[in-house]
Structure formats: C-alpha cells, structure tokens
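Sample entry follows:

_____
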Amino acid sequence: MPRPEERSQSVLNTLERLRQQQQQQQPPTARPNPAPAAPAPGGGAPAGAGQLTAAERAGIAERIGECWAVDAGAPNLRDIVVEFRIEADAQGVVRRVMPVGAPPADPRARMVFEAARRALLDARCNPLPIPRGGVAALNAATYRFNPREIGLR
C-alpha cells in the first residue's frame, strides 16, 4: 500500500503538469467565421417583409373581429367596405391607423369606418398575433372591413 506522502506527491505532480499545460506559450488561434451566404438571385423577400400566410391572416382577422361591432340593424350596410393600413410596433401593437383613400362621407359608411378604426386600436385586441419578424408584413397588409367579414390582403 502506498504511503500518503507519495500519493500526495503524485497528486501535486499531476496538478503541476496540468497547470503547465494550461499555460499558453502562444496566443490562441481561431478560425474565421465563414461569410454569410449571398441570397439567391431573383427571388425571396427581405427579412421581415414576407407575406403573411392564410392562417396568420385568419388569426389576425379573428383577433380584430373580437373588438369590432357594427349596428346590425342599420339599413344597407352589407355593401359598405372600408380599408385601412396600419403601423404596428415590433410587438404587434397597432400604433397608427390610416384609411386607404379618403374617409367616407356617407353617415352609414362613416359608422363602419369608425367602428373598424376603433377595433384596430382597441387594447383588448392588441398586440396582434404575428410571426417572429412579421411586423413588416403586418404593416404592408390592407385591412378590409365590411359588416359581413374582416379580411387582410
């Protein structure tokens, strides 16, 4: 059986060897990172500017629909259509709503217009459900409202 001094000496020797190995005589060398691959010519969209999928558009329309209410008893609303563009922040919270074209002058159309604008800005329906990096697509979409449905294109 080895004596404790020898075992201690052995551990100390091992530690000393490890310390010597860890000391570097030269600076560390590293490989350069490869250059990012160039995008393929003739296709694709810039990051974040892709189109929303049908499921994503449906999810956004469903969320906005939870906050949109129009007086169903008002006459001849079925043919009224209003369209908006929005500016949303990175989290998908609508910060600004802009009409596509001039706001309607007809009182019935103005009622639909105002209800749609309020729905887009309603805190209960914000943030909108968007994919990661999808804010550009959200801001590029046109939000179309009529009393029958809400749609995005």
Q: What stands out?
A: The first strand starts at residue 82 and ends at 88.
